Amino acid sequence: MAQIDLNCDMGESFGAWQTGSDLEILDYVTSANIACGFHAGDPTTMHKTVEAALAKGVAIGAHPGLPDLQGFGRRTMAIAPAEAYDIVVYQVGALAGFAKALGAKLSHVKAHGALYNMAAKDFDLSQAIAKAVRDVDRELVLFGLAGSETIRAAESMGLRAAAEVFADRTYQDDGSLTPRNCPDALIEDVEAAVSQAKRLVIEGQARSIKGKDVRVRADTLCIHGDRPGALGFVKRIRAELERDGVAIAALRDARS
What we know:
Elements lengths: L2 E8 L11 H4 L5 E5 L7 H13 L3 E5 L17 H21 L6 E3 L2 H8 L2 H14 L4 E5 L3 H8 L3 E7 L23 H14 L1 E3 L5 E3 L4 E5 L5 H14 L3 E2 L8
Parallel strand pairs: 1-2, 1-9, 1-10, 2-3, 3-4, 4-5, 5-6, 6-9
Antiparallel strand pairs: 7-8
Helix pairs in contact: 3-5, 5-6, 7-8
């Protein structure tokens, strides 16, 4: 039987600015990637989101990004591996503190936005991120793009790595994601995105924008919490996967 973890980026409100339907989405996902204050989020939002995820039995993970609130962490920045190490330790440690205060532990870490995409193609950057995660807690799972340098770096360091796939992002022939600044980066049609999600999870394949079938390993499927209609989207994807016999479970619950 196929099995998949459904993860969602959330906790991305800060100050007076509110975004996402986090509380409702938590009913349908199994892992929450919570912003840690650099690209989005703030201490109060982090606290509330961790508390809500724990109440729903959802695995909690840190979602560290570049220090870029204005650009939502999606703008490429020149960053040395040593600096990447420091900002990841800082952010993961902050969220781990809220988890500990609430009697829980983090399950995973997933880099955000430009940091995620830069690391996917840069082994040295990925190695710095993986080392930061390992040094905070070697039991944490590092999420990374399927087939990426992030997965390779994590596994070379003895960390458990989870290969991530995306329902609503288009793929290139090499298995990388189409950059967000390209007009065809996002799959906005719900039917097309649901179809891609099922193919990724059940068949282990994605169709690139040039029509090539690309093999991918799918351990966890991302749902973007800031996508328009995100709540209806995740409900539909979960229902379709379960209808096809796919087990939905957090990676922490699948270790045995």
